[in-house]
Amino acid sequence: MQVAVENHVRGIIGDCGGCCSCGTCHGYVDAEWIDKLKPPANDESMMLEGVIAPQPNSRLTCQIEINPDLDGLLIRLPAPEF
Questions:
Q1: Integer Cα distance of 68 and 9 in angstroms
Q2: What is the DSSP letter of 27?
């Protein structure tokens, strides 16, 4: 989330600054990557219940710890709500 915000990625707002309290960094992790991530903690799982258009591969991008093993990670963003 922080990398996306710092690089002006449209659709990643990160209003809470990475505290897992708003859901504005919701994204869909590509299927080939989902098993390479740590599973969501309880607080993330609860926040994901309130996001728009949740999917089984939904994650809060602020909770994904980036490391060299995730080089190439693909995350798609939900369609914007107008």
A1: 21
A2: E
Residue 82 has pLDDT above 70, yes or no: no
Q: For the sheet containing 58-60, what is the strand order? A: 58-60, 26-29, 75-76
Say which residue the tokens 């659709």 belong to: 11
Write the pLDDT tens digit of every residue in 11-55. 788 888 888 988 999 999 999 999 999 999 999 999 999 999 999
Q: 11 in helix, strand or coil?
A: coil
DSSP three-state, residue 53: coil
Q: Hey, what CATH topology would domain 2-76 get?
A: Ubiquitin-like (UB roll) (3.10.20)
